[in-house]
Amino acid sequence: MITRHDGPGLRITDGWRVLKSLGHFIVWLAAGLPAMAMAASSLTIEADTVEAEGWQAKAVKVVLAPAQRPALSLTSQISLAQAKEWRSLRAECGQIKLPAGHGTWACQQGLITSEHIRLPFQLTLNTTPIAGQPAMRLDAQLQDAQFSDAAGLHAAEKLHAHAELQARQQAGRWHWNAAMAWAGGELFWQPLYLQGQGQTLKAAGTWDANALQLDEAELQLPGVGKAHANGSWSMAARQWQTLHVDVPDIDLAKAYPTLLKPMVEQGALGHVEMAGNVALQADWQAAQLQAFRLRLRDVDLEDEQHRFAFYKLNADIPWDYDQPQRMQMGFAGGHLLKVPLAASQMQAEVNRYALTAPELRLNILDGALVLSDVSAATLGGQWYWHLRANLTPLDMPELSTALGWPRMAGKVAASIPMVTYNAGTLTTDGVLGFNLFDGNISVHNLGMQTPLGSTPQLHADIEMRNLDLGHLTRTFSFGAIEGKLDGDIQNLALQNWQPVAFDAVLKSSPGKYPRKISQRAVENISALGGAGAAAAIQRSVLRFFDQFNYDKLGLSCRLQADVCTMDGVAQAAQGYVIVKGSGIPAITVMGYNRQVGWSELVSRIRRVTASNVKPVIQ
Question: Which of 108, 497, 553, 596 is deepest in the core (most CB within 10 A)?
Answer without folding.
Answer: 553
